[in-house]
Amino acid sequence: xxxxxxxxxxxxxxxxxxxxxxxxxxxxxxxxxxxxxxxxxxxxxxxxxxxxxxxxxxxxxxxxxxxxxxxxxxxxxxxxxxxxxxxxxxxxxxxxxxxxxxxxxxxxxxxxxxxxxxxxxxxxxxxxxxxxxxxxxx
Length: 138
Fold this sequence. Notes:
Layout: E1 17-18, E2 24-25, E3 28-37, E4 42-49, E5 54-55, E6 58-59, E7 64-77, E8 83-86, E9 90-93, E10 99-103, E11 109-116, E12 124-125, H1 131-134
Antiparallel strand pairs: 1-3, 2-5, 3-4, 4-11, 6-12, 7-8, 7-9, 7-10, 7-11
């Protein structure tokens, strides 16, 4: 039986650079796969979160699509409950919707982030997600 990439603990894309502690709690790595393209108005990055890591609350002026490729994580829009995300899940985030995403407490979490309509801007970072907010998954 041939081993899969997950069984060998390999990933499709390199881990990338450590994300800024100004916008993330815990460690996360970002590898831009498609830097912001002014013709396609799209940027694509692979983001790896260590267990328990998450980004700050933020919005995307042009919207974003997340495609989960490994592990389990959380996604939350302001005023709504936290959603559990698992490999294969896709999240369509509408423009200007305040949200955050990151790994669950027990699992590393990887997603591809597609920023759309980037001529409107890519991301507006807001306040950190508190431990109380993060631990509110039911």
